[in-house]
Structure formats: C-alpha cells, structure tokens
Write a structure and sequence with these properties.
The complex is a heterotetramer of chains A (about 900), B (about 140), C (about 425) and D (about 170). Chain C has one domain. Chain C is mainly alpha-helical and about 425 residues long. Chain C has helices at about 5-15, 25-50, 65-90, 95-120, 145-180, 180-190, 200-230, 245-270, 280-310, 310-325, 325-340, 345-350, 355-380, 395-420, 425-430. Chain C is built from 15 helices and no strands. Chain D has about 170 residues and is mostly helical. Chain D has nine helices and one strand, in the order αααααβαααα. The longest helix of chain D has 25 residues, at about 1-25. The radius of gyration of chain D is 22 Å and the shape is extended. The chains are: A alpha/beta (about 900), B mainly alpha (about 140), C mainly alpha (about 425), D mainly alpha (about 170). The interface between A and D is large, with 37 and 36 residues.
Chain lengths: ~900, ~140, ~425, ~170
C-alpha cells in the first residue's frame, strides 16, 4: 500500500463529507447535501463495515463496526480474527455505550483554585503538562506514567515518551494481573508470561478456578476453542472450584473444592501421576519438598470423595492430550503462588508445556505489574516523591484494593493528569483531565498476544474535542522538540507498520483488520531447582468457614464496564439479578437462617461490615458466600505478599440476619424448570415426539421458511446473544425501577434452570415464530400475523396495545412498551436506522432480525439469485462465541438449520401445546 | 250519528261497554280507544291479528346475520393474513359476529317498525300534549266523519 | 279504594322521586362525581405517560382494568335477565325491579365499555378496532375474541338502550302530564307524543315481546363471549370449557346482588314499600342463592379437573391460587361467594332486607375478587417458570376502579331524579 | 318553518355521519406543507425541463441505493462556476460552497420513520420517477403530488404484483 492510498483512507474521516440523515433534529425534515461526493462505494443510506479492535477488556477481540450515516451503530466480532473469530461477548457489544456515553469528557478540563473544573484548550492543557513535568524535574520529584495494559505501537510510544521526558513508566496496572501465574512460570520456565492455552487441541481439560468464560485472559477465545473441543466425541472437561462460576456451570463435571484446597489437590495429583510413569520423572529432590499428600488427607482437605480423587488421577493419566489451566480464584488466594507452581509442574510432567501450554504465543501481559507496584506507588506518594502523575486509560482509584487507600494518598502527587474518557467520580480526583477518544474514533493497533496484530481504525469522526492517548503523547513530545513536528499519530503509526510489515502484510492488515504473523517457538527451560524452596510452605492451613469469595463478573469484568448501562440491564447469568448488589448463598445455608431471596443480611469481618440482600444460589457449597468483587470493592482484601495478587477470599466472616427485605431485581421467576421439560433430561434422549395432529391444514410457505437451531450443548449462557440483540434491535435500556416491576424489555433471555443437584442448564428463550402462533389470532387488528416466510410478524404501527398476544404466548417472549423510553443524548445516535424505535403502548418482540433478511434479499435480488444459506445471520447468532445459534431456511434441505432441525437431538419447547415453533433446540448428549 | 265519548275509571266497566258496543254492530274502524295501561282483553275482544311487526324483526335479523357473515368473509379475503395457522375464512368466529349483528339489526328494525306502525313520534302531541290521564276512553266516531 | 284513585296514588308515589333533590342526594352525587372526575384525571395521566403508571407488568399484562371490565359486564347481565327473561317467563315480581335493573344494565355497560379503552396501550388509535372502510385497506381481525367483545358490548348496549327506552315511553307520557314548563316539554319530546291509544299499545306490546326475545339470548351470549376472551386462549386456568356457563352464572350472581344493593335503599328513601314487597326481595334472594351454588360448583369443578386431570401446569396454577401470593384474596372470595350466600337457605334471613343488603355487598366484593384472581393468577404462573411474576395494582388503577363505581352510582343517582324508578304502566296492571 | 327544520335535521343526519366517515377514512392526517420553501430556489423547470438533464444526473444514487441522493455542492459548482454566476440564487450557492457549509434542503417527500423504502428496488422494478414524484420538470416549486399514504402505495403494489407482506415496508 502506498502512502497516498493510506492517506486517502484517512480522507473519509476528515469531516469533509457530511452524510444525509445525521442524527440531529433538523435532519428529520431536511435533506443535507454533500459538499463533495463521498468515496466510491459509499452509498447514502447504506451501511459500511469497518474493522477495529475491542478495547473493553485486555483480550483484544477483532471487531467489525457497522457504520450508518457516519454513526457507529453495531459492533460485531470479526470472523477469522485469531482471538475471537466472529464471536463477541456482552461487554464488547456494550462498548458502544462508552462511545456515546452521556458522561463523556467533551474537552480538556482543569481544576481551578476553588476546586472547580474549567474547560481549557488543548494548547493550554498540554502546556500545563509540559510545564508540570519541567517543574517536577527541577524540584527533584519523579514524574510517573501509570497506564492500563497497553500493547502494540502505543506501548512503544509510551516507552519512547518516558525515555525522552525522563518520566518513569510504572508497570501497567490491571486488577486481573495474573501475577501469580506469571511469577510461577517465570520461576519454572524463565517465562514470566501468560501462555496461550490451546484448549481445542486437548482431549481432557482440567480447569482449576480459572473463569474461562467470564474474565480469564481471553474469554471469547476460550469459548470458541471449547466449542470446537466439545464437538469432538472424546473430549472431557472437569472444572474444580470452591464457589460457583459460569465456567463451572458449563463444565462436563464441576468438582466443589473446600476453599483454599487447590494446592492440596494439585499436590496429590502430582505425586500420583509422577509415580505412575517411570519416564520423565520429576527430580527426587523436588518431590521430596512436596508435603505429604495421602489420599485420605487430600480427601479431607479438598472435600472430594476418595474415589473421585483416584478417578481424577486416572483420567489425567489416561488422557492423551491433557490440559490443565489454573487461574482466577485459585491463584487469588494465600496459596496462589504454590497453586500456580504446582500446576506448572504438573503441566511439565504431563507434557503440556510447549504445545497446549504455548509460550511462543504468550498473551501480552509481560509489562503488567502487580499490586506490589501499586503499593510502592503509594509509598512514594506518601513521601511526596511524586511530581506529575500521568494516569492513562485505567482507573486505579476505584480498582486498587481498599486497604491501599490510594484515593487519599493520590492527592499528594504534584500534578495529577488523567487521560480518561468519562467524567466520573475518579476523574474528578485529577487536576487536569485530558479527554480520550474512544477506540472507535481513533487510529491504533493492538497486540493481544505474540504474533497477533489487530487494527484500530476510526469508524466515525470524534464526537468531541478529544484525542487518543497516542496523539496526546506524540503532541507532548513534539512540544518539547523530541519528535518530528506536524507528524500526526496516524503517520507515526503508518511509519511503524511500514517498518514492521512487508507490502503484502500491510495490505492484509489494512483490509482484514488483523494479521497473524508466525512466531518462533520459544525454547523453554525447566528449572526445577528454583521451585523447591518456594514449595516448602505449601501445606494448607485449614481456613475457618464461612468463606466469602469475591468473584470476577462477566458483566463488568473487574468493574471497569459497570458504567455501561446495558451491562446492568442484562442479568447475571447464574443469579439472574440485573440491578443492585447481592450475596449469593447456598439454599441449605439459607434455610438454616430462615433466609429467602431478597432478605437483608449483614456480613462482617473484623471492623468491616456490609449489608446486602441474599440471593439463593443452587449448587453453591454451604460454607461459601459469594459476591461479585466489583460490587463490594470496599471489602478489606489483603494482598498476597509473594505474588502481589489480591486475595479474593475472606475466611471466618460473620453473617447476621437483619430482618426485612429489600427490592432486588431478580429476573427469574423460578430457578427450577418445575419438571416442565424446557430443557429435556438427557436421560431420555431417544424419545421421539408424537406427530402432531392438526385441526386445520398446515399453511404453505413459498421459497423460504426461516428457522433457527440452538444447540444447548454449545450454549454457555454468557448472554452475548442478548446483548447483541439489544444493540441491533434498538431495545431500550429501561433501568432499575422497571426491572423491579418485571418490565425488562429484552427480546432474548437466557434462563438458567437448576436441577436438584444444583447443576445449571441454560436455554436462550426468544420468540419461537410458531407455525401456529397463539399470539396471532387474538390480536384484534392483525398487528401480529404470520407471513409467507414463516416469520411471526409484529407490525408496530398497527399495534393498539391490548397485550393479549403477550398473555397468550406460552413462552412469554413478547415485550410491551410501558413508557415512551427516553435515550439520554447522545445515546440516540446508536439507534439502528434499519428498524423503528417503538412507541409507548406498543408490543414488540424478536423479529428474527427481519432487517437483515431484508438486506440479504435486496442483495440477492440485485444478483438475481436466491438467498444463500448462512447469508442471513441474526445478531444473536453472529455474536455467539460458541456458534450455538444457527439460522436459515428450513425449506432448503442442504441448509445447516435443516440438518440440525432433523438431528436426533432436536426438540421444540412445549411441543405438546401444538404451537409448532420455528426454533429447534438441540438437547445435550 | 254523532261522535260519542265514554270515559270510565274502572277496567271492568270499560270492557263491558266495549263488549256492548261491539255487539251492537259498531265496526272497529269507528272505535278509538285510550288506555292508561295495556289491557290484553281488549285485543281479544277486537280479535286483533299479530300484525306486520314480526316481519320487520325477521328482515332485520336476517340482514344482520348475512351482513355480518358477509363483512367477515369479505374483509378476511380482501387481505388474506394467516393468524395462528387458522384458515382465512374461519367460520366459527364469523358466526359469532353474524349472530350478534342479527340481534342488533333485528332489534333496531323492530324499533323502527314500531315507530312506523304506531305512527310515532306524533307531532301534534309533541307540542300540545293531550291525553285522558288514568281514564279508559272509548270514542265512537260518527259515520261519514 | 277504587281503581282510579289507586292509579293516581301510584303515579303520585312514584313521581315523588322526581322532586327537587335533598341535601344528602346532592352530597352523594357530588362525591360520586368527584370519584369519576378523579378517574378521568388519572386516565389522562396514564394516556400521556404510558401504561407504566399502572401496576401491570410482564407477564401479567392484564390486571385490574380487565377485572373491572368483566365485573361491570357481569353486573349488566341481571338487568336483562330481570327485564327480558323474567318477562318471557311472566314472573310477576319482575315489575318491582325491572326499570332500575334495565337502567343498571345500561350504566354498567357504559362503565364496562370504558375499560377496554383504558387498558389500551395506544387509546389514540382505538378506531383500528372498528370495521370501517379506510385508506389503509385494513380491517379488524374477526378471529380475535377482542373484536367479538367490541361487537358483543356494542350490540348489548344498543339493544338494552332500545329496550329501556321503549319500556319507559308510556311512563314518560305520564311524567309529561304531571309536569309543567320546560321539564314538561322535555319529557314531552322524549315521550314522542305517546297518548295511550289502542293502536300504540298494540304495537307496543308486540315490540316489547320481540325485544325481550332478542335480549334473552344476549344474557347467555354476551358473557359467554367475554369468557371466551379467556377460554380460547392457551393459558392454564383460562383454557377451559366450563368458562361460558360459569361466567354467565357469575354475571347473574353479581348483577342480582347489585339489584339488591340498589333497590333496598331506593325502596326506603322513595317510600316504595307498597309496590315492592318483601316477597319480591325473597324471590330475588332465591336467584342469588341459586347462582351462588352454581358458582361454588364451578370452583369445585375447576379444582377437580386440575388435580384429577393431573396436568402439571394446571395443578401448579390452582395450588398457587389457593396458597400463593393471592391466597388471602382467594379465601375471601370463597367466603363471600360460596359460604355467605348459603345462609340464605334460612327463610328469616332471606326476608331480612338489612341482612340481604350486606350479603349483596359481600357478593359483589367476592365477585370482583373472583375476576381479579382468575385473570391475574393464570398470567402470573403460566408455562415458562422463568417468566413467573407477581402483580400489584398501582394507585392509578385503584383510583380508576373507584372512579368506575363513582360513575356508575352517579348515573344511577341522576336516573333516580329523571326517570320513574318503577314502571308505572306495568304496575297499574298489577293493581 | 317546519319544512326548514326538517331539512336541517335531514342534512345533519346525513352530513354528520358522512363527515365522520370521511374523517375516519383518512385518519391520521398528514399536515405537512406540501411545497416547503427551499434555501435556494432551485429550478427543476430549467434543469430537468428546459435542459432535459436526466434525473440521475443529480440524483445519482437512485439506481444503486435506497436513497436517491441530493447532489453534492461540488457537482452544482462544476457548472455554476461559469454559468449564470450573476444570478442571486447562484450567488447563494457559491457562498454556501465557499463557506464549506452544506445546504439544508427542505424535504418535500418524506416517508415516516417506520417505513423501509428503497429507490433502487422501485427503479429496478421499472417504476418511473414521475409515478411517485409527478412531473417535477414542470414544477416551479416542487411539491408533493401523491398522498404517499399506505392505501396509495398498496394499490400500486397490488396492480404490479409487488409484495404486500407487511414487512416489505414496515420496519
């Protein structure tokens, strides 16, 4: 690619082309002319699809951004991307809310003498920074840069910046730093990295505490890999954890460990497996350092039956390609480092290292620090050693453990400069705020793991007077004369890419938005001698019950995404709580205290206490209490002295019933499916439903009969589909009050149903587009009817709002607009113009993304052919990380949906009602 | 013969006079009766026939039934939309509409027939009310009048 | 006493009711009007804000509004039963009640007719429900029970109005005769110049018979159609064949109770004791008792079907009705509808007007609750357990409900002062 | 006198239902200005009429996209840099262009938000521009000549055998 072409690409975003139909008020009655015609291929009123990279969490999934009229209206996972290959989690879907967040900083702000923020120009703001840096240097105070995990060119620019300006770059701050893991791998293999786990190449996965589907390193990637692995017949997955996670709910088997017994379990396995095979034995000296771990002792410590322990060892021994992953809660505890070390030893002993535990493609966590770094920062702040503190794209004030008291000590820095996007509470602690552009407004790149390059390309012109971190750093450098004047950050990036990639790679990178470069294998050296000393103290001290475990959250990650309204609107997959915070406890434990859902309790440990409503969690161990960590950030959690990880567990907490209940938005009406067979018991897999007797003749379908197949074996209940549906279909986010009244608007919900043993199964429930739909004949005005392609259509404009259709729907998937839902500006810019925004008093529901069918038909008509199989992807199916949702034409016998609908696993929910749904579920097993 | 008016306070006296008059050969056309309430015996004496009101009711009812059925079928066919897998012309629900319209049109036609046959509203009486209160009255009109 | 004098006295007695109203009457009227105006204001609020101000939610999409609708349509029924069915069966006691009962039918229907509008999400386009040619080439869906409702209620209201008006014609002429000035002219206008000639009486009696014949099937059909709103659906507790007869019996049950509620005070304040005897009340009380037994039987049958049929979904629903969130209401309903009316087997109680009045009040309370329970519980616990939910009415719904009673009694009070509450021409036959 | 009253009553009896039906038939009303004032008094009579430029010369996306497209100012200026530059309206145009400001034309034909309409599909289906827009070439001020109401669209769809499924247009 030539420089000229590249700059031409930039031209689109230079603001010269104002497209018709922009979101402002007057466009409704006005047509806006272009000044100059847009580039070839850009058609007014048609969508464009641009590549980008998701920056909502460190995983770095590839994105396709749908842009309509210069507005980004939908994010989708980028097919083929080495991280997510098309899938996108709910946080990624919600990232648009950050772009259009009403609290976005709109220009640089400076705190004046009264402590009030006053807008300043970029020129003034940057002058202040440069001046501040200079003064601090003169005073002999250190200038520091603290950023969140940063990769790619920006990370290089940061280094360059720090060198040139004598700014000290602190290790990057991530609450989920995986520090213990990296430290252990550093000790064992001289590789202080998070390896890339190749789940799809294993036949047995033993995961220990690692929340693969929620927050662990790269959730969408793991989900994708697991879906591939599950399709192999002999794949086994065992997950061991003390609490209850979405990952555990989906594992083939979930072992409930006593809290803090992971090390004991690993120790036992290591001893057993090492003895089982003469080859490649671990050094005697090392084995001797391990604490004695008899079967009885291990059974006592872990709470697992002896038979199961022996069987587990046998399973691992017999597996050809076993894989062990530890992390999450297992490494965020006092024995965290031992757990990681023992796991490393086991991985080495069972031959996983170098293939399924792949350091050559290590996830880019090397420059991330641990809480020790933050502790050091607070010490320096206390000693008034800090001059300018630049904080870029991270929020340590909220996410640092409460014990550090960073918020207080933070005030002692000479000049606090924040590069942030939202004007929230932590932003208001800074002296100078430099508004960051959203990743969708900026140029950049990301290297989520070694060898994977992902492009960030502006999908829209910046909404406000904001800049990307790269632009800001570059401009400061230019101001002090350390960088070529007038070189833009885009040019800087382009130069970097030109040096790094060859022509062909560059072409590929700019077109597909990502690039996978081959990586050289990293020779790993096994250093058992270093381990022995570390293992000496492995023996678990029996911790006192009850234990409070602070879990990561699939919705807010470490809390960073909790500002996105959609993620509060979507329920937590296991508890189905949407708004508010809650304490999960086992039904048996609750019964003892006579507690029911929503009853208020006080939980205390030492001086600290908190009041929370209770939510019963089937399947949770009776001695374990569970709260999502970011909802209880004030809890006094200690830091592990060795690894610098946060210990996410409090032992011996006190629980007091307070009496009374609080309003808590629990969306599920029942955690059991009451024997109604929504999800059939896998025992009865061979039963065939009876042929339906019909009163009336079935009505014909012409060319298409749209249908969907949902594979419940692949569905992990992560809620990405529901999130995608919200964004695609302009489903309003209604807020806590409406949720408390049972008025959520989600077209698609994920119902977790627990069996008596507390095992969860998930079923996505959406409009079933019944062939004989009960909702249709009861509508007095034909607002609900059946069209020739098998869609159950709801004509919003015709609807008078009797709600009879919703009453008569056995699946209860219709949603009524109780209000004229308001969207706070500029959130209305996110609206998808391909479908209408429903008014007050109108019923709405899943349309099978009829706008996408319409678009595909339009394309097919232009090319004078029928719509191809797979050409129409519903938003839910597109986003599903495991590919559980397949959509297509049931009349086409070669289509994927036809094949799945005729699978022996296929069934339809409430088939005995005779509604004949168009959604076929595939039962497990 | 002059027009004669007889007034009675009691029904029995009125009826016997009426019987007497009829036996004396006075034709029904010459009689004008005013009653404070409906006396079925009078109709028996005069041997009145059921009258045409029934046919109003029948016509109304039938046209309502057919009209209702026609409306349903026509509208369903004018834009055939499938609801709930039921046929476009679903007779059971259409019969409900037809039945209801039969009752409605039948009642309204009967009422209209009543107004027509009873010659109501009576304009003279609207402006200048005159009646005989609670008395039974027989007016025998003179011949040739 | 001779006949003429008796008739004159009857007219005087009945027309006493039309005299200048007293203080208590005005106060009562003002109170009822206030309730109604309050409901109108609340409705306006709801129409502007959206149905969110009501308590209905997902999955309970129908709540108090539809309960009110069914309740008031039910109240309407006994009016027609008394005026038309009992006319055809020549029950003599009917003349004591029929005028008021017919008025009650019309007013109850007017009140009931408002509720489908109130519960619409977009009342501003209610005309989509009407079959009329329009530029969109669209018609209503005649397969929908809600359209049947539109037709049933309209037909019922119009037929009842005609029936009522025809019945009052001779009486309006009497009122005209006994009035002077403007009021006389107004009554004269509405009496259509009725003179009481044989020709008029002849057509009148035939029309009355025909209208009674037309109205009689409506007694059974209108509430059957209302019941089909529920019975043709798929929900547990709604989808059942006994609904139509059960609803009709319930309608007559509550309507009869409402007649008692209206007539006991009317008889006393208007001093109509000579014309409405205790025997007549006893006859009405027997209807009340009889329909109560039918209702109780229906309750039993519902439970029997659910549990003997061993349908899981049905069983859970009926368990929930008796023991779930609304169990207090359920048992109150059983007491009011099934147990209290049983005391009417005792002749002394049945002839005690004060007691009868209290029973009638309880019956109406019970019947209102029945509709509430029936509508809400089935929606709250249907097929998908994830979507279960509970509904609590909001103050807007409660205000509008009280307003409907305000409107009804306001109309009754206005009726008492404008139209003779007894059919004088028919009573004269009985003298 | 009496006859007069009778006539009045008759007129009311017939007139009132007729008026009500008319009202109902046409509900809801479209009360937009059919011929709004434009920021620049563009003459379709000159461009499309006298000079016989094809519609697609300016509305160049009409065969390719849902929206027909409003000509960019640079297209206008490609001629008007030299043609008729002294005219008042052209001066307005030039000033817009030089200031780098887009022109906010008033919409004449506007379908509601909830309608999906594709110019491309209609043009490819052989519908002439004038079928919906009228003879624009003869309009001094462009105004809406068709009601663009549902019944009007539907009539044509039915005549031509175009789809009448609700989702074809309602989105």
């Amino acid at each position: 690619m030539e420089r000229r072409e590249f700059l031409q690409l930039l031209g689109i975003f230079s603001g010269a082309a104002i497209l018709p139909g922009c979101g402002d008020d007057r466009s409704a009655s006005k047509l806006v002319s272009y000044l100059v015609p847009p580039d070839e291929g850009v058609l007014p009123g048609e969508a464009r699809y641009l590549p980008s990279t998701c920056c909502e969490c460190p995983a770095g999934c590839g994105l396709t951004v749908r842009v309509r009229e210069d507005r980004a209206v939908k994010l989708e996972g980028r097919p083929g991307h080495p991280v997510n290959d098309g899938g996108l989690c709910m946080r990624g879907q919600a990232a648009l809310w950050r772009l259009y967040h009403p609290e976005r900083l709109r220009h640089p702000l400076r705190r004046d003498a009264d402590g009030q923020f006053q807008p300043v120009s970029w020129d003034e703001a940057l002058t202040l920074v440069v001046e501040g840096l200079r003064q601090a240097r003169q005073q002999g105070r250190a200038n520091l840069l603290l950023s969140g995990r940063t990769t790619g060119t920006l990370a290089e620019l940061q280094q360059h910046f720090c060198q040139q300006l004598e700014v000290e770059q602190l290790p990057q701050f991530e609450p989920f730093s995986h520090a213990a893991l990296r430290q252990a791998y550093g000790i064992l293999f001289a590789q202080p990295e998070v390896p890339h786990y190749r789940i799809d190449q294993s036949d047995l996965l033993l995961s220990l505490g690692a929340d693969l589907f929620e927050t662990f390193v790269s959730p969408v990637n793991y989900a994708r890999q697991l879906s591939r692995a599950i399709k192999q017949d002999d794949f086994q997955w065992i997950h061991a954890e003390p609490h209850y996670s979405l990952t555990g709910a989906n594992a083939g088997e979930r072992l409930i460990l006593l809290p803090g017994s992971e090390a004991a379990l690993l120790c036992f396995l290591l001893v057993r497996l090492d003895a089982a095979d003469e080859r490649n034995r671990l050094p005697m000296q090392l084995m001797a350092a391990l604490p004695a771990s008899s079967l009885e002792e291990t059974a006592r410590l872990t709470g697992l039956p002896k038979r199961r322990l022996e069987q587990l060892a046998k399973q691992l021994r017999l597996a050809e390609r076993p894989l062990l992953i530890v992390g999450g809660i297992a490494t965020s505890q006092p024995q965290g480092l031992q757990v990681a070390l023992l796991a490393g030893l086991l991985q080495q002993r069972l031959g996983m290292v170098g293939n399924r535990v792949d350091f050559s493609q290590a996830e880019a966590y090397a420059s991330v620090g641990s809480l020790h770094d933050l502790e050091r920062l607070t010490e320096r702040l206390e000693q008034d050693q800090v001059g300018v503190l630049l904080v870029s794209a991270t929020d340590p004030l909220v996410q640092a453990p409460a014990a550090l008291d960073l918020k207080q000590k933070f005030q002692r820095a000479g000049l606090r400069v924040g590069l942030c996007d939202l004007f929230n509470e932590s932003a208001q602690q800074f002296d100078l705020l430099l508004p960051l552009s959203h990743p969708l407004e900026s140029w950049g790149d990301a290297v989520p793991r070694r060898g994977v390059f992902s492009l960030l390309k502006p999908a829209i012109a910046p909404l406000y007077d904001s800049r990307s971190a790269g632009e800001i750093l570059l401009e400061i450098l230019q101001r002090v004369g350390q960088q070529v004047q007038n070189q833009s950050y885009q040019e800087y990036l382009f130069n970097t890419w030109q040096q790094r990639f060859d022509q062909q790679q560059l072409q590929q990178f700019s077109e597909q938005g990502f690039l996978s470069l081959p990586v050289s294998a990293v020779p790993h050296q096994f250093r058992p001698e270093a381990v022995s000393s570390q293992l000496a103290t492995t023996q678990a001290a029996t911790a006192t019950a009850p234990h409070l475990i602070l879990t990561p959250s699939i919705r807010s990650f470490d809390g960073r995404s909790s500002c996105l309204p959609l993620l509060s609107e979507l329920p937590d997959p296991l508890s189905t709580v949407s708004y508010g915070r809650w304490l999960s406890m086992a039904p048996t434990a609750a019964r003892k205290l006579q507690l029911r859902d929503r009853d208020l309790v006080r939980i205390s440990s030492g001086d600290w206490s908190a009041e929370l409503p209770v939510r019963l969690q089937p399947g949770l161990a009776a001695t374990v209490l569970m709260v999502q960590g970011d909802l209880l950030s004030e809890a006094p959690l200690p830091t592990d002295a060795r690894s610098g990880e946060l210990i996410r567990r409090l032992d011996g907490v006190r629980l007091t019933k307070l009496g009374g209940a609080v309003a808590l938005a629990i969306l599920s009406g029942s955690s059991s499916q009451q024997g109604r067979g929504l999800i059939p018991d896998p025992v009865h897999t061979q039963e065939q439903p009876l042929e339906q007797t019909r009163f009336y003749r079935a009505h014909p379908h012409k060319d298409y009969r749209w249908a969907m197949a949902i594979d419940l074996e692949l569905c992990i209940g992560c809620g990405a589909c529901a999130a995608a549906c919200y964004v695609e279909n302009n489903v309003p986010v209604v807020g806590q009050q409406d949720h408390l009244q049972g008025r959520e608007m989600s077209w698609l919900r994920l119902a977790p149903f627990y069996d008596d043993a507390g095992r969860a199964s998930f079923i996505p429930m959406l409009c079933q587009h019944c062939h004989n739909a009960p909702c249709e004949p009861v509508c007095p005005v034909y607002a609900a009817y059946h069209n020739a392609e098998g869609l159950n259509v709801q004509v919003y404009q015709r609807c008078v709002g009797t709600r009879y259709c919703s009453n008569n729907c056995p699946y209860k998937v219709r949603r009524f607009n109780w209000w004229q839902h308001q969207r706070q500006a500029p959130l209305e810019q996110m609206l998808n113009p391909d479908l209408s925004v429903r008014d007050r008093g109108v019923m709405e529901k899943c349309t099978f993304c009829v706008q996408r069918i319409r678009q595909a038909r339009d394309r097919a008509q232009d090319e004078q052919r029928p719509i191809r199989d797979g050409e129409v992807l519903t938003a839910c199916g597109q986003s599903c990380p495991t590919g559980a949702i397949v959509f297509g034409n049931l009349l086409d016998e070669s289509s994927a949906v036809y094949r799945l609908a005729h699978s022996h696993r296929a069934y339809r929910v409430f088939a005995d009602l005779g509604t004949e749904p168009s959604i076929y579920y595939l039962r497990k097993g | 013969m002059m027009t004669q008016t007889y007034q009675y306070e009691e029904a029995e006296a009125f009826l016997s006079k009426l019987r007497e008059l009829l036996q004396s050969g006075i034709s029904q056309e010459q009689l004008e009766l005013q009653l404070p309430y409906h006396l079925p015996e009078v109709e028996q004496l005069l041997e009145l026939r059921p009258g045409p009101l029934r046919f109003f009711a029948l016509t109304g009812g039938l046209s309502g039934f057919l009209g209702g059925l026609g409306l349903c079928i026509y509208t369903a066919l004018s834009w055939p939309l499938i609801t709930g897998g039921k046929p476009i012309v679903s007779l059971p629900p259409f019969l409900i509409i037809a039945y209801l319209l039969a009752v409605l049109f039948g009642s309204l036609a009967s009422f209209a027939g009543f107004l027509l046959l009873a010659r109501l509203p009576k304009r003279d009486n609207l402006l200048e009310p005159s009646d005989f209160g609670n008395h039974f009255v027989i007016v025998v009109k003179g011949e040739g009048q | 006493m001779d006949q003429l004098a008796a008739r004159e006295k009857l007219e005087q007695d009945v027309l006493k009711g039309l005299r200048r109203p007293g203080k208590w009457y005005l106060l009562g009227l003002a109170f009822c009007t206030l309730l109604f105006v309050n409901a109108l204001v609340l409705w306006g609020y709801q129409a502007s804000q959206g149905l969110g101000v009501a308590g209905i939610m997902h999955p309970v999409g129908w709540g108090v509004y539809i309960a009110n609708f069914v309740f008031w349509v039910g109240i309407a029924h006994s009016g027609t039963l008394i005026s038309a069915v009992l006319y055809l069966f020549r029950a003599r006691f009917r003349t004591s009640f029929n005028r008021t009962a017919e008025a009650m039918t019309i007013f109850a229907l007017m009140v009931a007719g408002m509720f489908p509008l109130i519960h619409l999400g977009r009342v501003e386009i209610f005309y989509y429900l009407l079959p009329y040619p329009n530029q969109r080439n669209l018609w209503p869906n005649f397969r929908s029970p809600l359209v049947w409702d539109v037709f049933a209620i309209t037909t019922y209201l119009i037929v009842s109005l005609v029936f009522f008006y025809v019945g009052t014609l001779p009486d309006l002429a009497i009122v005209r005769r006994r009035m002077t000035g403007v009021r006389a002219r107004i009554y004269s206008f509405f009496s259509l110049g009725w003179t009481g000639s044989l020709g008029q009486w002849k057509q009148y009696s035939r029309l009355y018979l025909l209208l009674a014949a037309f109205a009689t099937p409506l007694v059974a059909s209108v509430h059957s159609i209302v019941s089909w709103d529920f019975a043709v659906s798929i929900l547990p507790g709604w989808h059942t064949t006994i609904f139509a007869p059960y609803f009709v019996a319930g309608a007559i049950f509550s309507g009869t109770a409402m007649v008692i509620i209206l007539m006991v005070p009317l008889r006393r304040t208007l001093q109509l004791q000579p014309y409405i005897s205790i025997d007549h009340f006893e006859a009405i009380a027997k209807i009340l008792l009889f329909t109560s037994l039918i209702i109780s039987y229906a309750y039993l049958v519902e439970y029997g079907l659910a549990f003997y049929g061993h349908n899981q979904v049905e069983m859970e629903l009926f368990r929930y009705r008796a023991l779930g969130h609304y169990s207090v209401l359920f048992w109150l309903m059983i007491i009011c509808n099934s147990l209290v009316p049983l005391t009417l087997f005792i002749k002394r109680l049945r002839r005690n007007l004060a007691y009868l009045f209290v029973v009638a009040l309880l019956v109406n309370l019970g019947m209102w609750i029945e509709r509430f329970i029936l509508i809400v519980t089935s929606l709250a616990r249907d097929f998908d357990p994830y979507a279960w939910g509970t509904y609590t009415p909001s103050w807007v719904e409660i205000g509008i409900t009280f307003g409907s009673f305000g409107l009804f009694f306001m109309l009754i009070l206005l009726f008492v002062k404008t139209v003779p509450v007894l059919s004088m021409s028919e009573l004269k036959e009985r003298l | 006198m009496n006859r007069l009253i009778l006539i009045v009553i008759l007129v009311l009896l017939v007139g009132f239902p007729a008026a009500a039906l008319f009202l109902l038939y046409n509900l809801p009303f479209d009360n937009r200005d059919p011929a709004p004032v434009q920021p620049i008094a563009f003459q379709h009579t000159v461009h499309a009429g006298k000079m016989q430029l094809p519609c697609t010369f300016c509305h160049r996306y009409v065969e390719r996209a849902r929206q027909a497209g409003i000509p960019s100012l640079s297209l206008c200026m490609s001629c008007h840099r030299s043609i008729a530059t002294e005219r008042e309206e052209i001066k307005k145009l030039t000033s817009f262009f030089e200031a780098g400001q887009p022109v906010y034309w008033s919409r004449v034909h506007q379908l509601p938000d909830f309608i999906y309409f594709s110019h491309k599909r209609h043009i490819k289906g052989g519908v002439l521009c004038a079928t919906c827009h009228g003879e624009v070439a003869q309009m001094e001020v462009v105004h809406q000549v068709r009601s663009l109401e549902m019944g009007w669209c539907l009539a044509c769809h039915r005549d031509r055998g175009a789809p009448t499924d609700c989702t074809t247009c309602h989105k």
